[in-house]
Structures are given as structure tokens and as C-alpha cells.
């Protein structure tokens, strides 16, 4: 049995309070992800000129750190012992445009530490609906089961609300006429509209995590480097101030004729100035330009610390590839490669869970051994891996076709190769038979003796 209308209203209001408690933290992470963090170190009464320099001092490296990982994570296949079922499940991925939507999932995982996917039935019996959601769009509540939540409250783009449990999707409406809940603990701010069964025995919301931690909440890529991002912005602000006010040498005029000199400076663009004063009454002091090397070195040092904490190649954050050999470039990406491999394992479990639910909606039983296939990046490491597979096939006698699925190509490409290989094998003429097989036994012994 599903919830009654009054129960849905109380549960939606409870989840909305949870959403409000999470909102500030999520909005703060989004501000850093967009390169627009609050300038907490800037006094409120700062002159407008310095405020403009402070706004220009934001150097958005958080987004770059997120992209350095997310741009290497693309699912391009789904494998299962049930090949016909796997093909039907993969069709759900393609029909819901998840080749594109997975990019948003990866960015949300890196930015917020978590993202969500939901699988629901559609009007067609052979198609399911799969949607990607950020934690700013849906709030979920978990019970004893870590794999499936008990409830989820989603705000749709049209500002309507949906409450999901293990049986139904409830359409809800926000209201300003609040009333107290049955236990008197909270104000009810939702009204029940209608419900629709989703034909599943679980709340069909899948959680994607950036990392697995048994003690602390997952933070994502942005929260860990927020202090360093603030530090980089502050150093850049000091650099801009030094450039703006002290990058050029300045002269200071000291004497009784200063007011007259100021009027002359405002009225004339000439580089020659005439000062009518005794040498004892007037003096000129010169202030040398500010040296910027210290600011630049300090900022580069902070960027290197951010690179280490976020496991992002330093040259990508600094934009500097000078004097880096090919071997050093590969080694500089090793830490990020380990991070990508770990995240692919965690996120891959989420994709398999979501695709399993989508397959169940179209009549395909969930295969616990099914897995998604990640598209490898064709870099120097991948080319070395291909060479290693060739060595395995040549020296260990492993059939070449058995190694095809280990290659950095999509399942569709390998499937085309297999079909082409079968066609070539069918069209190839049979191998010629040896003449010795048609000769009498005595002639064969004579031939061997002659040899």
C-alpha cells in the first residue's frame, strides 16, 4: 500500500526541511564551481576601484580540477551474459541520450560529491525513462538499505514537485497555507495532487558518489580545495593591486608649490613641467616600481598545492608545458589516472544499478554480473597497453580475438570487427590438402626416405 495523501504531505515537508539544510552547502560549492565565490576577505567599505580588482582576481581552478577527471569518464558499452538482454538495456541508454547526460552526472559528482539518476516507466512498453539529477534538484532519505533510498523529493524544471517511494510517484504542490504535522514537529507546506505507480519494488533513485568513505560524508573535488582557491584569489588580488598602483615608477613632489603643480598637471598633457620655486622650497622624490616576482611565485606555489590535493596534473593548472619530456608528461598524469580508475569503479556501479532498473522496466531480468564498459583514452599509456596485448598474444599463445574486448575501442566497433572476421572466414577458400594424404602408404615412406 502506498502512502495516504496526508502522509505524502508530511513526508514531502520533512524532505523539504532536509533540502533547506543542505542548500547552503550545495550553493557554496556551486559558487566555487562557477568561479564566483564570496569575497569574504574583502572589507565592506572597500573603495569601488579595489572591489573591481577583487572581482577580476577570481581565477577559477576548481572547475578545471573537476573537468580534468570528468572528461576522462565516458561509458560506451554494456556487457552481460544475456547478450540479447544487454542489447535491449543498452538501447535504453541510447534512447535517453545518456551519452550526453553522463557528462552532467560526472560534473555533479566532482562538484558536489554526489549525483542521482532515476528510472521510470514510459508510455511505451519497450522504453524506460532515465533522467540525471544533481543534489540541488532532488533530496533523498535513506534507511537501512544503502543501495536504495526510502524516499526522494524532486523539484522539476517547471517548479512542480514529485515525491517518490517504493511504489508510486506523487505529484505535489507547494502551498503557503501551512499547518502543523500530526506530531506537531513541523509545518506542512505541500498539498497532494495525484499519484502514479512506477511498477518497481524499490524507490528507483540511484546515487552516484565521488568516492567511498565508511566514516565521513563524501566531499567531492571542490570542497577539498576551497581554501586553496581562496588563497589563489587573494594572491591574485594583491598582484593586481601591485600592478595597478605600483608597477610603474612614481615621483613625489614635496614643497609649498604643490597645489599650483596639481592644477598644471590636470590642465596639461605635456611631459615638461615648470615649477617656479626656490630649490630649498621644493623637492622631488622618486619611488621605484614594485617587484611582482614574489606574488607570481607565491601564486604558483599555491597552484601546485592544489594540483597535489586534487590529483590534477600541475601543467594543466599552470598552463605550462615548457621543458617537459614525453616520459615526464606521462608520469605527471599518473596520479590523476589512479583517481580516474577509482572513480570509474564507484560510478560504474551506479550506472549498472540504473541500467538494471531500466532493463527491468522493459522486461529484462537484472544480471548481477553485468557491467558497463568505459571508453579508454587513447594516450601514450593506452598505446603501450595495446603493445602489451600483442606481446601476450604472440608469446603466450592467447587467441587474438579473446583480447579484442580489452582494446581501447567501443563495443560497437569490436562487434563490427567480429562480424567482419566471420564474413572473411566464411568467404575464404578451404585450405589445400597435402598430396601425401592421397598417396599410398608405401609411396609416403619413399618420399620421406628421399627427403
From TrEMBL:
Keywords: Plasmid. InterPro entries: Portal_protein_SPP1_Gp6-like. Residues 420-451 are annotated as: Disordered. Pfam families: SPP1_portal. It comes from the Bacteria. This is Phage portal protein, SPP1 Gp6-like. It comes from Streptomonospora litoralis.
